[in-house]
Specification:
Elements lengths: L2 H16 L10 H14 L4 E2 L4 E4 L20 E6 L1 E3 L2 E2 L2 E6 L5 H20 L6 H14 L9 E3 L6 E5 L12 E4 L2 E4 L3 E4 L2 E6 L2 E4 L10
Antiparallel strand pairs: 1-4, 2-3, 3-6, 4-5, 7-8, 9-12, 10-11, 12-13
Helix pairs in contact: 3-4
């Protein structure tokens, strides 16, 4: 893979690892987003890949919950979606954490997403239609009684969203070298939402997960 592409991923991963150092009750979403932006640049990013998403509490049910002046509270779900732009290459990662001890319901939703992502990853290899990957992800969520309200993923490279699209109607066939995201999400109004998003390199033998940020609910 292009070393600059990998660098864009590593920069974002480094900032994700540092979230526990500055995300705490009483801090606003905007203050957290500003800190993420500053740290991305401090590690060499030209800027963020796209507008940073920091959505806490009930706002995490927004698919694109851009940061506001809302203060983070203990018990809040927080969805983080951001990446780094490095020499024209972009990364895109989403993680969802809970401030404090996760509840039984929060754990349940998160486990559904992990299973959904695993089902998509199992399908994401050379020669498979994108619609089949989407079907695998969407099926797990549907069987659990929920709905996926967006596509299961997309290509990433010089643009944050590019071909191929991992969606119901996509006829694109994955091939060696494609880099796509697999990003199941569940969004419940007046409760909150969760999403996990990882970048994947498609190969003949299956996916190589490029993003290694911890997949746990505890921040």
């Amino acid at each position: 893979m292009n070393k600059n592409f990998l660098r864009a991923i590593l920069i974002a991963e480094k900032v994700f690892e540092e979230l526990p150092f500055f995300v705490r009750p009483g801090v606003t979403e905007k203050r957290v987003a500003d800190e993420i932006r500053w740290r991305l640049k401090s590690y060499g990013a030209h800027k963020e890949s796209f507008r940073i998403i920091v959505a806490s509490g009930k706002r995490s049910a927004l698919i694109h919950g851009f940061a506001t002046n809302k203060k983070i509270k203990c018990g809040d779900i927080i969805m983080f979606d951001f990446g780094a732009l490095y020499r024209n290459w972009r990364s895109d990662i989403t993680r969802t954490y809970v401030v404090g001890k996760p509840t039984a319901r929060q754990k349940k939703i998160y486990e559904i997403l992990k299973r959904a992502q695993a089902a998509g990853l199992k399908k994401a290899k050379h020669g498979v239609k994108c619609s089949e990957v989407d079907k695998a992800v969407r099926g797990v969520i549907k069987r659990a009684g929920y709905e996926l309200k967006h596509g299961s993923g997309h290509g990433v490279g010089s643009k944050t969203h590019e071909a191929p699209r991992i969606s119901k109607k996509s006829g694109h066939v994955l091939k060696d070298g494609d880099v796509v995201t697999i990003e199941p999400g569940i969004y419940i109004k007046n409760w909150g939402g969760m999403r996990i998003e990882d970048m994947v390199l498609v190969t003949h033998i299956g996916p190589k997960i490029l993003t290694q940020v911890k997949r746990t609910l505890s921040l």
